[in-house]
Amino acid sequence: MEDEHLEEEPPLAVEIPLPALPNHLPAVYSEDPPATVGVTVVTGYLGAGKSTLVNHILSTESRRGKRIAPSPGAGAARPAEGTARSYLLETTGLANPAPLASVLWLDEQLESSVTLDSIITVVDAKNLRLQLRGRRDSDSFPEAFLQIAFADVVVLNKVDLISNENGHDSVEELKKEIKSINSIASIVRAVRCQVNMSDILHRRDYDGTHLARRTSVDLDKFRAWIEDILWEKQHSMDIYRCKGILSIRDSEMLHTLQAVREIYEIVPARKWKEDERQTNKIVFIGHNLDESVLLNSLKSCTLMKRLSVS
Ligand SMILES: Nc1nc2c(ncn2[C@@H]2O[C@H](COP(=O)(O)OP(=O)(O)OP(=O)(O)O)[C@@H](O)[C@H]2O)c(=O)[nH]1
């Protein structure tokens, strides 16, 4: 059965129209689309509902008009010629999204026209526990685990198949299980992937509403610190994913931090608002994370929170 899936067609890249631009924006905004296209990756275990989600997105968004562009293969999503601004890439059920995410991200660093928007992981509510089994008894990480660990959004699909058994509680238990792997992903429950587009596409991950403490960091020192954490793997800490917002010394811009494995970027996102509390908040997802090592190495200038687990 696995061989069958390995021989599947290459992933499908599908354009996702961007939401309508507000009227008050300057005309140049709508006439002059950005030079890059964003790629949303849809991943998930075998049979979880990836195609169902892609079809749902297509049918929901079809009124806006779209083009389906075949991608040359996993890990190398490219827009077809034209003015597409956003694509959807479906991986095979056995895919570990890390290399794909890294490639897309690296492309962005190299100023390619393709950037990684987000990773949506579809989870089969009925079989999730089974798929994660083995994780607890060994150091191995099944694909189902990695797919959740890398997700920005988890669609907890097929809840119809469990609601007749244990009802509401078991959905909540599964949510907890997903949160224990990745507490920064948002979780959307669904039957046949019938989700609202606004819950899964064009999301803003950093809205600054859960900021907590005013601090600021020196950008050069911070880069040295994060490189040490991501690249040197001190104390066997292995970081899969890292996200954060940073208050950089001598800058009035809120910066965002993103990392997938060894690749990271820190970019100015927007100006801090006048009444906003400027803070640093970093979330790590990985293996063997040691909060005290992280905190001590960064000293007291950054607020840090470890939300997931060894
Ligand atoms: N009962 C139930 N069945 C579902 C649901 N979502 C999808 N299915 C069914 O599950 C099967 C697999 O769905 P797909 O969308 O093909 O899953 P996939 O992840 O693309 O599958 P692979 O590409 O084979 O890994 C299909 O028969 C769907 O009709 C759901 O919420 N409830």
Question: Can you describe what's shown?
Answer:
- The chain has helices at residues 2-6, 27-31, 50-61, 97-109, 128-132, 143-149, 160-163, 168-181, 197-200, 219-232, 291-298, and strands at residues 12-15, 37-44, 68-70, 86-90, 114-124, 153-157, 186-189, 238-247, 253-260, 263-271, 281-287, 304-306.
- It is α/β, with parallel strands linked by helices.
- It has 2 domains: 2-200, Rossmann fold (3-Layer(aba) Sandwich); 219-306, Hypothetical Protein Yjia, Chain: A,domain 2 (2-Layer Sandwich), CATH 3.30.1220.10.
- Strands 3-1-4-2-5-6-7 form a 7-stranded mixed β-sheet, sandwiched between helices. A 5-stranded mixed β-sheet has the order 10-9-8-11-12, with helices on both faces.
- The radius of gyration is 20 Å and the shape is globular.
- The protein binds guanosine-5'-triphosphate.
